[in-house]
Design a protein that fits this description.
Layout (H helix, E strand, L loop, with lengths): L5 H8 L6 H4 L5 E8 L6 H7 L7 E7 L10 E7 L6 H15 L4 E5 L3 H6 L2 E3 L2 H5 L12 E2 L6 H14 L1 E8 L1 H16 L5 E6 L17 H22 L3 E6 L6 H10 L3 E2 L2 H6 L4 H17 L5 E6 L7 H19 L1 H4 L4 H15 L1 H9 L2 H7 L16 H18 L9 E6 L10 H19 L5 E6 L9 E6 L4 E6 L2 E6 L9 H15 L15 H4 L4 H6 L17
Parallel strand pairs: 3-4, 3-6, 3-7, 7-8, 8-13, 9-11, 9-12, 10-11
Antiparallel strand pairs: 1-2, 2-14, 4-5, 13-14, 15-16
Helix pairs in contact: 4-19, 9-10, 10-20, 12-18, 13-15, 13-16, 15-16
């Protein structure tokens, strides 16, 4: 038998709490119907695409007085997309809810993500398996994948698999794309009168799946606390050694919620916010100059050290870099098929063939590409993703900034404008946060999401996402219910065609969370007001073990807010 560490054994035994409306079991849950809903935009178009599931009511659950008689049912569950702490607890909550209704109910886990339900690869989950994964990180119980559910052939196969297993409900645990797939599948099955309901659960550590109904996506709490602990350690090292500038790239390609939350927890000297860079139309040179200004001013105060947080996707928000990436995405297939590129023997020759091609189609992008360090040029030419696009996460933005800052400082030194010392250290924190033991918050939240998803399916709801609200309150005061997936949708151009998608939530530059950063940015830039959150705490004072994120507290009005600064100030 494999020896289990003390912490792991205690985490497995942790008992998550449930909102008051779910505590007495799903047999006693009563449904409260709210208002009918509309999509965010393109109402008529989305209504025509989802005629059977569009415009449903928001619902909440309350504790009923009398238990209902419920038929025995089988459900299926899918993990979709990248890992996020708490995924296993969604499954255990779903399982416990189902078994509490009837011990003969069955839950099937589809293996390897959405492809599992298409290909009929599954396992039946039982007490032994479920109990060994409670409150653990990762998605290894059944595995995950990124297969999209969108074709008639796939839907037919899903229907057949569900018929074979007598499944009447499916839970898809994933982010915005995965829940868009859930909406499409729910609509298709409803149109066929298949008698199979589909419910989603909001997952992503990036924090960009949220809206008026979804206060936060699960995993964000744990991941940002994990990163904050690591950044705090680096800040302590910077303060101890007093000779390094640390550039920390953090997860968050499309939005900077992770970087913003970690900044509020740790108070670094520089925090880049992608949405702010785009709003100010910052050039790469201007962005670097802003960082240089802080570095120089700290050096003048005798501080040749500091910490800067860099969002993973910031390079796509810089106008000339965004244009370059778009042009490369559009033209690289032609470049790679050219004789000059095929016959190139060195990186320099390959770079030159790209520049020559861009000069013909996008000369401004050719100049930008030519100005980049060789390392970044090479990373821009790496293998594309399945859609033919540059894999931005593989671009070492933190190293690019270090190189450009160093060049500017050396020029300033030659002009007798800088007399400090600069040594840059690059870090990328990504995978470290995706499979951590869930925090107490995420353990409770995810368990409640799964249990709540069971209640939604049992009540015959389809095309909904599991919603737990009032999350800054104690767990027993959380509000359980469901929101129609179409309510969160818009139309976006994907691969040349407009398609229905769940809208990503970006950082709001007029919102309370970003305002909090602006209030403190000048002070944090020049002082050493570093905060050291340390590792996630599972035992101890309630205000430590069950604290929510600064983001959630600010958005729910739990922290004192000051007047909004009218002028955006990027670095100081």
């Amino acid at each position: 038998m494999t020896e289990i560490s003390t912490l792991q054994s205690f985490r497995i035994k942790y008992k998550p709490e449930l909102p008051r409306s779910l505590k007495k079991g799903i047999k006693r849950v009563a449904v409260v119907e709210g208002d009918k809903t509309d999509s965010i935009t393109h109402q008529e178009e989305l209504k025509s695409l989802f005629p059977n599931t569009y415009g449903q009511n928001v619902i909440t659950f309350k504790a009923g007085k009398k238990p209902k008689k419920l038929e025995a049912k089988n459900f299926g569950v899918i993990l979709s997309g990248g890992q996020a702490p708490g995924g296993h607890n969604v499954i255990t909550g779903l399982y416990d809810g189902l078994k509490r209704i009837n011990k003969n109910n069955k839950l099937f886990g589809f293996l390897g993500g959405p492809s599992g339900i298409v290909e009929g690869k599954y396992i039946e989950l039982d007490d032994t398996l479920i109990d060994s994964y409670r409150n653990t990180g990762g998605f290894d119980m059944i595995g995950s994948g990124r297969t999209k559910l969108e074709t008639e052939e796939q839907f037919m196969k899903v229907w057949q698999v569900c018929q074979n297993l007598n499944i009447s409900g499916i839970v898809i645990i994933g982010g915005d794309d995965s829940n868009t797939n859930a909406a499409l599948l729910a609509e298709w099955l409803k149109a066929k009168n298949a008698g199979i309901c589909v419910v989603g659960c909001p997952k992503t550590i990036d924090g960009d799946l949220k809206n008026a109904q979804i206060e936060t996506s699960f995993g964000f709490d744990t991941a940002t606390k994990t990163y904050a602990g690591l950044v705090g350690n680096i800040e302590r090292d910077a303060l101890s050694a007093k000779k390094y500038w640390h550039f920390v790239k953090l997860m968050g390609r499309s939005a900077t919620h992770v970087g913003l939350e970690v900044a509020l927890q740790t108070h670094p000297n520089i925090t880049l916010i992608s949405e702010e860079v785009e709003a100010n139309e910052m050039s790469l040179d201007a962005l670097v100059q802003g960082m240089v200004d802080v570095i120089v001013e700290r050096a003048e105060a005798g501080k040749n050290y500091g910490v800067a947080l860099i969002p993973e996707g910031v390079i796509e928000f810089i106008p000339e870099m965004k244009k370059l990436i778009t042009n490369l995405n559009d033209s690289m297939s032609l470049v790679e098929s050219s004789e000059a590129y095929k016959n190139a023997r060195t990186d320099a020759e390959r770079f030159q063939s790209v520049i020559e091609h861009l000069n013909q189609t996008a000369p401004d992008s050719a100049k930008v590409f030519d100005s980049l360090p060789a390392l970044i040029k090479a990373q821009l030419l790496l293998d594309r993703d399945p859609h033919g696009n540059i894999q931005v996460s593989k671009i070492e933005t933190e190293q690019l900034l270090i190189n450009m800052i160093k060049a500017k400082l050396e020029k300033m030194r030659a002009e007798d404008k800088y007399h400090g010392k600069f040594s840059g250290q690059a870090h990328f924190f990504g995978y470290e946060g995706r499979c951590a033991f869930p925090s107490n918050f995420d353990a409770n939240y995810c368990y409640a999401l799964g249990y709540n998803a069971c209640a939604l399916l049992q009540s015959g709801r389809t095309g909904y996402i599991s919603c737990i609200k009032n999350l800054t309150a104690p767990v027993n005061k959380w509000i359980a219910g469901g929101t129609p997936l179409t309510m969160m949708m818009t139309m976006e151009k994907r691969h040349g065609q407009f398609k229905p998608v769940i809208q990503k939530a970006l950082v709001k530059l007029d919102g309370p969370v970003f305002k909090k950063l602006l209030e403190n940015r000048s002070k944090w830039a020049l002082t050493d007001d570093y905060q050291f959150p340390g590792a996630i705490q599972y035992y101890g004072p309630y205000e430590v073990t069950n604290a929510t994120t600064k983001t959630l507290e600010l958005e729910k009005g739990k922290m004192k807010q000051r007047r909004w600064f009218k002028r955006l100030r990027l670095f100081r």
